[in-house]
TrEMBL record:
Keyword set, alphabetical order: Cell membrane, Membrane, Transmembrane, Transmembrane helix, Transport
Subcellular location: Cell membrane
Domain ABC transmembrane type-1, first and last residues per copy: 22-209
Coiled coil regions, renumbered to chain: none
Source organism phylogeny: Bacteria, Bacillati, Bacillota, Clostridia, Lachnospirales
Chief location: membrane
Official protein name in the record: Polar amino acid ABC transporter, inner membrane subunit
Length: 225
């Protein structure tokens, strides 16, 4: 066991540093996800508008987010803001902006899909009872929309957690960056360090994302039943 290379994980503060790097990834994911939910819900409502101009610009935004790789967006915000807007954004702030930009578009599309999937008679029943448009949405449509959204929301969260590994390329010291530092420091003394370090990073991501995936699957099954 001593010669297998696993000791690289427990030398000094290596394991603690990996956990701290993981917390950085989670902090970026949770902040971005919270902002994406807050902004994505009204954006999804806007996307259901009958106004063609609003729908056109909403579609443009959504397509840009889907076509443009997140890595390019990260570089545009981090380096582009510094060069053209003279804003020295921290790498963490740039990451939150990009993932919120991406998450808001995805969340908005999920909300739009959930809204249009609700039968028309739900709206008509509310108006037939004398409710205003706000009351119909607040008491009838939004509760049903949230119920339909939850499985997709869990999937979006796990995607966001995994995608935050890209922030290493703009200098955020998250778990992958810490892992590389440990491997670089041990490459001469422990040749198999990369195997153990990246294996541990895989297990950390798995331990976080798997419960969300299972929860999402159970929710989806329960909604079908």
């Amino acid at each position: 066991m001593q010669d297998s290379g696993i000791q690289v994980l427990f030398q000094g503060t290596n394991f603690l540093r990996l956990l701290e790097g993981l917390l950085v990834s989670l902090r970026i994911s949770v902040i971005s996800m919270g902002l994406s939910v807050a902004l994505g819900i009204p954006f999804g409502v806007i996307m259901t508008s009958k106004n063609r101009v609003i729908r056109f610009f909403s579609r443009i935004y959504l397509e840009i987010v889907r076509i443009m790789p997140q890595l390019v967006l990260l570089f545009l915000v981090y380096f582009g803001a510094a060069k053209h807007l003279h804003m020295n954004l921290s790498s963490g702030a740039a990451a939150v902006i990009v993932f919120t930009f991406w998450g808001t578009a995805e969340m908005g599309d999920l909300v739009r899909s959930a809204l249009i999937s609700i039968p028309v008679h739900q709206y008509e029943s509310g108006f037939g009872l004398g409710m205003t448009k706000i009351q119909v949405y607040w008491y009838l449509i939004i509760p049903q929309t949230i119920r339909r959204l939850l499985p997709s929301l869990m999937n979006l969260l796990t995607r966001m957690i995994k995608t935050t590994s890209l922030v290493v390329l703009i200098g955020v010291v998250e778990v992958v960056k810490v892992g590389k530092q440990i491997i670089d420091a041990s490459r001469f003394t422990i040749p198999t360090a990369a195997l153990w370090v990246y294996g541990m990073i895989f297990l950390m991501y798995f331990a976080i994302c798997y419960p969300f995936s299972r929860f999402s699957a159970k929710l989806e099954k329960r909604l079908k039943d």
